[in-house]
Hints:
Layout: H1 7-28, H2 39-47, E1 54-58, H3 64-70, E2 78-83, H4 86-95, E3 101-105, E4 117-123, H5 132-141, E5 143-154, H6 161-173, H7 191-200, E6 204-218, H8 220-229, H9 233-240, H10 244-259, E7 262-263, E8 266-279
Parallel strand pairs: 1-2, 1-4, 2-3, 4-5
Antiparallel strand pairs: 5-8, 6-8, 7-8
Helix pairs in contact: 1-4, 2-3, 6-10
The structure holds S-adenosylmethionine (SAM).
Amino acid sequence: MKPVFDPTQYKITTKANWNTVASEYHYNWADKKIGPFRSTIEIAKLANIKPDDKILDVACGTGVVSKEISQFLGPNGLLVGIDLSRTALNIARGSIAFENSTFLEMDAENIGFNFKFDKVTCQYGLMFFPDSQKVLESIRKILNHRGMLVVAVHGLAEDVPYFSTIMKPILEHIPDIRPDGTPTVHRFGNLKDLESEIAKAGFVNVSVVRHDFVYKPGTFEEYWEDYMHSTANSIRSKIESHGKETMDKIKQDAQKNASRYEKDGNIVFPWTVLVASGFNH
Ligand SMILES: C[S@@+](CC[C@H](N)C(=O)[O-])C[C@H]1O[C@@H](n2cnc3c(N)ncnc32)[C@H](O)[C@@H]1O
C-alpha cells in the first residue's frame, strides 16, 4: 500500500534533511551564486531595498538572499530570517555582518510577529510548504500597506532537467518512493499557477518574470554523486534499500537522460526560474 502524505512527518524530515545538507548546499552552490542562484541578485534588484526597510526572508536557509539584501540596509533597517533548519540558520548568522539582523527557527506555516514588514522575500521555499496558501496569507497579514512580496521558484520538470534527469528514473523504478501529495520542486513551476497562487492569497499587481539560467554540474559521475548526496539525501537510504540492481538501473536511465545535455563530456543544464512579485493592498 502506498504511504499517505503526513505534513507533520514531512516537516520533521525536511528539517533533518536541511540540517544535514546545509553546509554543502551553501558553500558548493547557493553562496557561489551559480546556476539557479543567479536569482538571488534578481530578487534583491526587484525588491528595490531602501536603507530603512524592514525585511523578512522566509525559508531563508543559509541566508544567501538575506546577505544580498543586507548590503542595501542602513542603521534603521531590519532583517529577519526564518527557517526550520538550525544548521542553516547558524550559517546565515555567521555569514551576515549587518547588525540589525536576526535569524529565527520558525515554521513558515506558523509565522508569529506582532509588527509589520515592508518587504518579504522567499527564494526556493514556497513549493516546500504543504499549506502554501496559509503561508502566503500570513505573509500578507504581516506586510505593511503596499508592502511587497518577492518569491522565486524552480520551473517545470522539463525546464529544470537537473532534478528530472535523475528523479524521473527514481519514480519509474520505485513508484512509492514518496507518498502521493508530497510537495515537489516543480509545484509552482508554471507561470499561471504561481501567479494565481499568490493572487488567491489576496496580493495585488502580481507579476511573474521567467529567467533562463544555465548550470554546469561537471561530468555525469560528478553530477550523480552530488545529486545523490545533496538533493536526494532524504530519500537515498530508501533507494539503497531496493538493492544494487535497482540503483544501477536508475543510474543507467539517468545517464541516458543526461546525454542530451552533454558537451565534450560535461553536462550543461538549462534551468528555468520564475521570480514573482505581489503587493499587499
Ligand atoms: C532550497 S532551500 C532555500 C534556502 C534559501 N532561501 C536559499 O535561497 O538558499 C529551502 C529551505 O526551506 C526551508 N523550509 C522548508 N520548509 C519550511 C517551513 N515549513 N518553514 C520554514 N522553512 C522551511 C528549509 O529548511 C530550507 O532551508
